[in-house]
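Just scan my protein:

. . .
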Amino acid sequence: MDSAHYDVVIIGGGAAGLSAATTLARALRSVLVIDSGTPRNAPAAGVHGYLSRDGMNPRELLTIGRSEVLSYGGTVIDGEAVSARRTPYGFEVVLADTRRFSARRLLVTTGLTDELPPIDGLRKQWGKGVVHCPYCHGWEIRGQRIGVLGTGPLSVHQALLFRQWSRDITLFLNDTVEPTDEEWDKLAARSVMVVDGTVASVDAVGGVLTGLTLRQGSSFDVQTLAVGTRVEARSALLESLGVSSQLHPSGAGRFIETDAMGATAVRGVYAAGNVSNLTAQVITAAAEGVMTGARINADLIEEETRRAVEGHFGPFAAASEAAVSKIVLGHRRHGLDDLQKPADMGTTTTAQRESA
């Protein structure tokens, strides 16, 4: 089966991928977006912090984004990319259903996954009663009884951060967090309640979060639970091409390192959005997609210009061919003899012909 050829294939149809695709399509590039349909923010009721789109359902935002890509001549398909390899043309991407697509450049915007602690009832509340980012959800939960689940060294910071949105904050250490003396002082100064002991379950009634229960049996009423997850970039496709994930300096998870414009360490391979920026909100991921799309277009222009120069001045360029022909054939070159004769050579008189 012959693969379809594109200037750019984008793996991932979230905010970063669709923004990059729109930018490239507007630059008259042939671009394909391959989307597996598993956005990270699917459980959320709305997108926040996105100017002019605040509160919009995440899937509605992506539907509009797809329409914009299509309106500029881009292509979007549903599918799961399972492998990629370098080819003389550039790259070939293989889907789970065996379809194959090739591209001169490859952009991966597959996002990340959130690894939640194995606590009963926690995942069911993810994106509903359980949140992670105050800038995404703080306004909606302002003034509520908010619990913060201890998951690592950043949990104290998370508790102090959510304190901006509510006076009623409880940090559950969960036998995981051990605050320093300085952190204890900060928690006390900000009136953050601290509870020791392992959390056994996240409780809900009718799908609405009601509180937490510790392993020892104590229960606590909270209306919202903040959880700092460990995040992992969806980097399998990139790593198969030799792009390795890195441990984030914060210890929050692993990500793909790129330069400021999305280029990875492997020539022709780019990444944008949460796969390379673990803390990017939706609007940030979209902006990174625009920048990386522009970078890819500039990269393609450089390549096309280099080839044009080589074609114009290279060993088989017209000027070079004419020079070689002159050296080898001299005046016997086809069509050149007449051009180099004096102007009067074609007007010999009868007397001249007879004397010859």
